[in-house]
Amino acid sequence: MKILITGGAGFIGKNFLKENDVHEVYIIDSFDSLIHGQDTKALEAFLKKNCAGYLIDDYTSNNSFKYIKEIKPDIIITMASQTGTSDGNNRMDYYIKENIIKFSNFIDFVSKLSSIPKIIHLSTRAVYGNGLSRVGASIVTNGYRTISNLSSGIYHYDWEKTDNGSYLPHHNSQPTIPISIYGGTKLTQESILYTYKSMCQLDIVVFRLQNVIGRWQSKNNPYTGLTSWFVKSATKNEVIYIYENGEIWRDFIDVRDVCYYINMAIISNTFNNKTIDIGSGIPTNLYEYARLIVKSLNSKSDVTKVKEFRVGDVRWAAANIEFINSFKSIDHHTLSSSILSYENHRNDF
Fold first, then answer.
1. What mean pLDDT is predicted for residues 119-147?
2. Is 278 helix (H, G, I), strand (E, B) or coil?
């Protein structure tokens, strides 16, 4: 089967290539220096060895469109996106251009191919925003945390002031209320796909990913995620600061597990035309996560809670994984193995 991956030179794409021994895989990637650095010789050598072909270009360029017509892929996996939560809030016009305008142009092009490929799209849990909670017999939206409250060190949601409720895992049946420009642009991408699905009989799979970590995650990209920051500090025995006084939880999933589900979407129609939450289903406190990184790397770093925050961040996140577990349960990689895999391979490219 012929598969094309846009943005496929990133760490999810590289892991997919490394795990693949069946499909004929092609890559289009702009080799953004923010992610890959200036010297890409090792990356090109990796691609030459592990994929059928690659093109260094913007995935919406005329050269890319010509390349796709020549390949005639059966499946396109759309990974190319700008991904910074706080960065998106500071550069709204840039994120709209990169994540919405380019993406819509690309899907319009794909919809007009003589043979329309199936699309597997990587989205994000950021589309849910703050999500929902259960308070007594009611399910309530967590709403918004104002900058005024965050600046005053009030990090919890309104219902937490008086009630003992519980956070609910993110699920595609919930309303999508993104609180960052990044989350908003990714939700728009999903809407574009479903619009074209109805017009063109397009087969799509949308994966809403939680925090993906693991080998080959970029150490250069400041927007790649928390693990990069924490590991850098731990390897230098520097203090690791945890924002919001340590009151933040995330769902971390190993990139190898994500690649497993991407492959399942390729070989099975069970995933077709569904929006699926991908995570471990286990909420992890960031303070405890940083301590685990320090322990795993035998670091001498101190982990310190501080009263700082990032606009656009959420307090709590975890996926509802009923669907993927009912399809086929796997033994997820542990956080410790994910961290060590990240550290052992982070300097390869």
1. 94
2. strand
